[in-house]
Amino acid sequence: MNQSKAARRARVTSGKVALQGGIPPNVFLWVLLFLIVSGFLYFRNAMSELEEQRSALMTKQRATAKVLGPKLLPLRDQIEANAALLAGEGKDFVDSNVDWENLLQQPGIYLRMRHEDSLAKEEFRTVAGASLRDGFTSCAIVDPTARVLSAGKECARSTECESGEFCNVFSSCQRPHSPYNMRMLYRALVVLSDKWVEEVREAGTDTALTIYDRGLDSVTRVEIPLAIDLYQRSKFALIVLDEDPKDGLPEAIAGARETKMERVQRSSHFARIGVWDLKSKKLLARMRVSASGVLRDVGTRRAPGGAEAAAARTRTANSCALALEFKSKLAPPTETVQVEPETVETELPKN
């Protein structure tokens, strides 16, 4: 009996008999081996295809950087150098030989941020990438070619617009109005940055690389050509650095998504303003002025209530007051105007 059991055990081990249903054990071994080999080959093939896709994307990016980078990077460096100069100490200065009324109607570049954010390069570029026109530009500069923001072809993305146009926040295709904000420049330069390259190198799926590829195509076709066109036509750069209030930032509004920059702008504070000629790189004006204004309702309509609405109105008043003070220093009035200390009042119709 013992010999019989030993014989059966030997046949089972050698795979010459079937177990529970008739599948030899060595079949499991072969299936397992097949799955392991197949998985390895699939993984190696997938990784090979992924690296090919990554290599093709990086080749396209390098070609873009080589052709378009030299047209945008010098401008970025120039604006950053000007901002660093403005952030430092300096005396107020206005070039009296400049026809300011004519200059400010020409195409220009606008950048505004907190003074504190301008002191670190990485923070500077992050904040500059979100810099938009605001109450200051509305009161300081008039673009004679500007149109109503809702006018234009309806769009969902800029690739649907004609050459030289982009899809604005009102989902309308339009050419940007002067002064051109720095957000456009930094968005165009994202695909040329070391950070973008590092993200592509770390992307682990073909889906992720496809997203980066489509983003590169969009920037190459729309943002970069548009930025080159606008900035090459620009005559001046206008930079505003808002200093934090003397007593520190005001308390944030509960439940509101209010940035530090917005908290500064709804407070009475000082700001540094600089204007440069982009062609000659010459400083045309530099000043430190107060931003403190009051926005009054005109007519029977009253402004909507709520802390956020009140904060937005205060930001507009302060920014417009800053703009009026800026313009008054560019072309001082011939007659003395009595103004309350550190306060510039503005009256704007309620739209």
Percent of residues in beta strands? 5-15%
Number of domains: 1
Distance between the termini: 104 Å
Radius of gyration: 31 Å
The largest β sheet comes out as: 6 strands, mixed
Structural class: alpha/beta
Strand arrangement within the widest β-sheet reads 1-8-7-6-2-5
Number of strands: 10
> Percent helix among the residues?
40-55%
What is the overall shape? elongated
The ordered string of helix (H) and strand (E) elements is HHEHEHHEEEHHHEHEEEHE
Uncertain residue segments = 341-351
Number of helices: 10
Calculate the mean pLDDT score and round it.
Answer: 81
What does this structure look like?
With 351 residues, the chain is an alpha/beta fold. It has one domain. It contains ten helices and ten strands. The chain has helices at residues 2-14, 25-87, 100-103, 121-128, 135-140, 183-189, 194-202, 206-233, 260-265, 307-330; strands at residues 93-94, 108-114, 166-167, 173-174, 180-181, 236-242, 269-277, 283-291, 295-296, 346-347. The strands form three sheets. A six-stranded mixed β-sheet has the order 1-8-7-6-2-5, with helices on both faces. A two-stranded antiparallel ribbon has the order 3-4. A two-stranded parallel ribbon has the order 9-10. Strand 7 (269-277) and strand 8 (283-291) form a beta hairpin. Helix 2 (25-87) packs parallel to helix 8 (206-233). The termini are far apart. The relative contact order is 0.13.
Features:
elongated, 10 strands, disordered C terminus, two-stranded antiparallel ribbon, 10 helices, 351 residues, 13% strand, six-stranded mixed sheet, 48% helix, alpha/beta
